[in-house]
Amino acid sequence: MNEKDLLYFCKLVETGSYTTTANYFKVTQPTISMAIKRLADKFDDPLLLQKNRKSKITLTDAGDLLYQKAKILLHQIASIDYDVRHASDKKIRLAFSGEAGNYYIADIIQKFYQAHITNLIDVNIKRSADAFADLTNGDVDVAIYSWMVPINDPEYFIHNLQRTELVLITSQNHPWHNVHEIKAADLRCCKFIARKRGYLTRECLEQEAKLGDFSPNIVYTSPTMKLMIDLVKRNVGTALVMESSVKEENGVHIIHLKSGQRLWAYMQIAMRKSFVPNKYQRAGIEILRNFRPKNK
User: Fold this and answer.
1) Gap between the Cα atoms of 237 and 219, Å rounded
2) Can you give the pTM of this predicted structure?
3) Across the 296 residues of the chain, what is the mean pLDDT of every consecutive 10-residue run?
4) Beta strand residue intervals within 62-197, DSSP E
5) Which of 151, 109, 154 shows the shortest CA–CA distance to 131?
């Protein structure tokens, strides 16, 4: 059994086509067929069943288990390959969500500066979902992000940083400038400034809309959190944001959702447990593992 045979097997399971799999790897169909035969002979099981060339490929019990195990093994092999090839890298690839970046980048850079290792920092800013996906795929070493539920996965080292409430903000000239608590259903009359789908605040807005049984009236989709807050100050609309984003903002009024309808954002640092830092990265990884945010 070799790595290529497992790669061919997994791709065949996913595509359901010998032709598509062969084209993907730029090999012949017999190459794929021989790889499957070698695996079948090794495990004394056909692994794959197909009545004829046009019928759907199905997995035996052994084939299904092999597919699940092989995906894990291939991911580990890829991780080993990357780590060994980059054993001399003097960089730690950090993915920040926009909110986590605004909140923690300066503090983290300060910690690295105090340890004389700022040269290690390689920062990318992206959506929380993309940051964690890049971590899973091995495209970054550490992700700092926020989401509606805390991630708790044994494959990752997870360090909890902060929990913050999602609140509605209005301008100080808005009719609700004296309101301090509302129900989700009250939001059906609002005009919203929101981020694109996939961003935490947008996902939370749509969750509140479900609770209030309405579709949010989004008048503008903002590319940044700062612009979203600035437009609210100008009374273009209201917005659902993390309270931590606006605590120091002048010109906005904060309204909480009623108890039982409140949503929270959980900020975390995550890294794969399979990631083994090289000798250059160890000091930086130790800082990140033990990072404690300042009270903000």
Assistant:
1) 7
2) 0.72
3) 92 94 94 94 93 85 94 83 79 90 90 96 91 89 92 91 95 94 95 93 95 96 94 96 89 95 95 89 95 75
4) 92-96, 121-125, 142-147, 156-171, 181-182, 191-194
5) 151
